Amino acid sequence: MQHTTSHLMRAYARQPVSFTRGSGARLWDESGVEYLDAIAGVAVTSLGHAHPEIAAVIAEQAGLLLHTSNVFRIDWQEQLGERLCALAGMQRVFFCNSGAEANETALKLARLHGHRRQVAQPQILVMENGFHGRTLATLSATGNPAKQQGFEPLMPGFLRVPYDDIEAVRRAADQSPSIVAVLIEPVQGEGGIRVASADYLRQLRSLCDERGWLLMIDEIQAGMGRTGAWFGHQHAGITPDVMTLAKALGNGFPIGACLARGEAADLFSPGQHGSTFGGNPLACRVGCTVLDIMARDGMPQRAAVLGTRLLTGLQKALGQHPSVLAIRGQGLMAGIELDRSCKELVGRALEEQRLLITVTRDTTIRLLPPLICDEAQIDDIVARVARLLSSIPTLNPAEPTLNDLVDRTPHHV
Ligand SMILES: *Cc1c(COP(=O)(O)O)cnc(C)c1O
């Protein structure tokens, strides 16, 4: 049956297609047409659609107990907390329902940390092109003026520096004694798939240690195996003080988590933070099942292998394409930056290639395939993207123009 969107707030620019079922990396729309999913609900359904083990656990737990309250002990929350801490080298977890809430928790920890150190107006260092969510605090932390526009006044207490630039952080440190924490993504997802160098992350860790700042890493998109490690920062061999998770942790069931270690793990006292739904038995049991499956099936390692295949394939198919400026990525996070705005490619990919992609930062095609893809599906994604891009008109013709010839004329002649 066809409904309309007229009773929904127009917060989204939606594609006209609606899916009714899925299986693994495949989806079917209302007319039964099959699609290949190269975005996994924006890094959420990493174990694919309709995973039978997850479906069974949801059904079983729904028949036992959905919700009690954080007034009581919740065994599944304790189990998931223990297991996440073991994977990440952390000590305590606060559970919530989304990425933005996980980052709100981190931001509140940073403020408490600052006040404990007698900093009256604590500042948090954030990155250009960073993305941390849509609540007022996380929007203020986000480095995208287009998303912030209209929602002023933004929250104070943030200082912004260029990403992957340690000298910029050092300069900020020297100028602003009230910095108490850094919030950063190991790979900027919304920011166009930009990977922080391992060396930068290690230097940032040292600087945080020297200055007594909390290193807070937003792993909401890059975490849970996607980059080829459980968490993106692990490629650099560092451990943050605070880490946030959401997206793939529930494979589509809403759950968020803020993990902490050391001093940061003990900042909250009872009554200082809370969530009605956060950490309910159903969400946490799903999280435990996701971890079981990911560990059993070696998902981070799979993402590393498939990610290399994806990036090599894209490089081979599109490396010489006249409109492709760069191909970037780590594991199963890939970005293809074009020489123009390319938002309309999302609709064309659906219609012409039966492929789900997203475009971020206006000019970058973003691919986030589910981690359960097989090799043939990865190759198929590459082939469909290549076909999609085969028909776009060239902006900069390869033949030299009169201007090129003039520019190349040696000046000393
Ligand atoms: C998606 C995302 C968020 C926000 O998560 P929501 O669940 O949409 O609130 C925050 N940080 C990063 C890096 C993300 O990719």
Automatic annotation (TrEMBL):
Signal peptide: none
Reactions catalysed: N(2)-acetyl-L-ornithine + 2-oxoglutarate = N-acetyl-L-glutamate 5-semialdehyde + L-glutamate
Alphabetically ordered keywords of this record: Amino-acid biosynthesis, Aminotransferase, Arginine biosynthesis, Cytoplasm, Pyridoxal phosphate, Transferase
Entry-annotated residues carrying N6-(pyridoxal phosphate)lysine: 247
EC class: transferase
Subcellular location: Cytoplasm
InterPro entries: AcOrn/SuccOrn_fam, Aminotrans_3, Aminotrans_3_PPA_site, Class-III_PLP-dep_AT, PyrdxlP-dep_Trfase, PyrdxlP-dep_Trfase_major, PyrdxlP-dep_Trfase_small
UniProt cross-references to CDD domains, sorted A to Z: OAT_like
GO MF annotation: an example: transaminase activity
Gene3D superfamilies per record: Aspartate Aminotransferase, domain 1, Type I PLP-dependent aspartate aminotransferase-like (Major domain)
Cofactor note: Binds 1 pyridoxal phosphate per subunit.
PROSITE patterns assigned: AA_TRANSFER_CLASS_3
A UniProt-annotated Pfam family: Aminotran_3
Residues binding N(2)-acetyl-L-ornithine: 134, 275
List of residues binding pyridoxal 5'-phosphate: 99-100, 131, 218-221, 276
Pathway where this protein functions: Amino-acid biosynthesis; L-arginine biosynthesis; N(2)-acetyl-L-ornithine from L-glutamate: step 4/4
Cofactor names: pyridoxal 5'-phosphate
Main location: cytoplasm
The keyword Transferase is annotated on this UniProt entry: yes
Enzyme Commission code: 2.6.1.11
HAMAP family named in the record: ArgD_aminotrans_3
PANTHER family: ACETYLORNITHINE AMINOTRANSFERASE, MITOCHONDRIAL, AMINOTRANSFERASE CLASS III
Annotated family: Belongs to the class-III pyridoxal-phosphate-dependent aminotransferase family. ArgD subfamily.
Additional comment: May also have succinyldiaminopimelate aminotransferase activity, thus carrying out the corresponding step in lysine biosynthesis.
The protein's name in its UniProt record: Acetylornithine aminotransferase
Organism: Hydrogenophaga atypica
